[in-house]
Amino acid sequence: MGGRVTRVFRTFNVESRARREISKEKPTPAPRHRTARTVTAERPEIKEEILRKDDRLLTLLKDVFVESREPPARVKDGGSEHLPCKPEEKRLTKLGHLGALDVMKVSKGKVSIVEALTLLNNHKLHPQIWTAEKIAAEYSLELKDVNSLLEFFIPFTVQEFPKETKKAI
């Protein structure tokens, strides 16, 4: 309700109020403050004073000596920064059933997502055949990483319930 009342007062006689504001004379701008440029242009002796050299100050400036006490910069042991670094060793991946979607080359010590799911599933289905040592040798991984992977990551299992037990659930 209050919004309607204020809107009425805001929109009352808008056109005539706008015409009145537009037809007013432009206000005169405030006077500008005198700047250093205007002062030096009016008084040439100030400009000469600025450009004149003071011999006493120049001699004092010549006596100033700055001494740096920072330790010298050390040379890096790695040699020049522009030398090429050793390229990472890569291995071809063991392509699973998603061969076109999987990465073709992986750094040694790492596995792709498809390989990780494959090795976890193989270990889950046949733990006697796919031991941690065999997986580490097959995928060029460290044994402690493989043990951690097998301990903390478990692939999902799909379970289908018979129709009779669906109603009981």
Plain-language structure description:
It is a single chain. With 169 residues, the protein is mostly helical. It has a domain of 62 residues. Strands 1-2 form a two-stranded antiparallel ribbon. Helix 3 crosses helix 4 and helix 7 packs across helix 8. The longest helix is centred in the C-terminal third of the chain and has 13 residues. It starts with a helix and ends with a helix. 5% of the residues are buried.
Termini, distance in Å? 55 Å
Largest sheet geometry: 2 strands, antiparallel
Count every beta strand, where a strand is a DSSP E run of 2 or more residues: 2
Sheet with most strands: strand arrangement: 1-2
* Proportion in helices: 40-55%
The low-confidence parts are none
Number of helices: 9
Judged by helices, strands and strand pairing, the structural class is mainly alpha
Strand content: under 5%
Shape: flat
Q: Please tell me the overall pLDDT.
A: 79
Radius of gyration: 42 Å
Order of helix and strand elements from N to C terminus:
HHHHHEEHHHH
